[in-house]
Input
Amino acid sequence: MVEFMVMIIFFSLLLGAAWVDRRTMTIPDYFPAFIFLLALRSPFLGVGAPFGVKVISVLSVSLPMLLCTVAIPGAFGGGDIKLMAACGAFLGWERNLLAMFFAVLGGGGFGLWLLARKQAKPKDHFPFGPFLCMGLMISALWGESILKWYLSWLP
Output
């Protein structure tokens, strides 16, 4: 029951972040902050990644996103980077990477769709937070099963 309530709070924060980002192209700091607080409390509640894994998990996606943004200004917003850092602390690095994979698929497909319909130019920006949140929800719900399936194909 406790795990269910923690996940409801996590999903509510993700939905809020996606909704705000879609409207304003910013993710306010309070969304990642609350998710990070939830991640710090979750091992004591019996859910989430173990504390020792959290440091690696925080950097697993957010550091490459930050480096990409330094190399290509505007590639990702600061809110996207902070959201993935906080969610890494909550989900663990494996599920965080999986979430980023789904977000890139969704966001890339949406970008291609906008280009094909001539509703955007190649240099235009669109909010990536909703795709991150979608990937995070998929990863939180089915990440373990997806990872087991994927790893079963490796020799």
